[in-house]
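Subject: for your reference before the review

Hello V.,

The reviewers asked for a structural picture of the protein, and I figured it would be easier to keep everything in one thread rather than splitting it across files. Below is the amino acid sequence we used in the manuscript, unchanged from the supplementary table.
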Amino acid sequence: MNRPLLRAEAIIFNEDKSQVLIQCDIDENFYRLPGGSIEFGETATEAIKRELIEEFDLDIYVGELACVNESLLEYDGMEVHHCTLIHWCAAPSVEHMTVITHKEEHNQNIILTWKTLEELSTRPTYPEGILHMISANSNIIEHLVIRKKY
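And here is what came back from the structure prediction:
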C-alpha cells in the first residue's frame, strides 16, 4: 500500500506583500512554491528551512500555517497522495535580489524569482488553487484538495 508523501512549502512575501518569491525554471514555464519533502523526525518548519538552505543558501523566517494541500493523483495505473503543509514566510535579506539560482550544478535551470500576483496568473501556478488563497491573504487556514486522473 502506498503511503501519502508529506511535503512542506513556503509562501514568501516581500515586505509590502506586493510580490511572492516563487520557484520556476529559467524559461518560467510554470510557477511553484519552494520547499520539499519532510524527512522522518522533521517538522514542516524544519523541512522548509533545510530545503531552502540546501538548494539556494537562503535562510528564511517560517511563520504560521497558511494551507494544507492534498493532491490525489492517478496516472499510468498508479495512485499518488501528496499532503503539503504550506506556511507564511519571509526572507527580507533577499528582497533586493531579482533571481536566485539553484546551487546544485544539475539543477541550475531552477530559480527563485519575485512575481506579482498578476504575473503569477499568466502561467500554471502550483499547487492548483494556491493563487486564489494567496491573494485572499486570510488568517484562515485553507484546505485545498486536488483530484486528478491522467
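For the response letter, the relevant points are probably these. The first strand starts at residue 5 and ends at 13. The chain has a mean pLDDT of 90.

Happy to draft the paragraph if you're swamped.

O.
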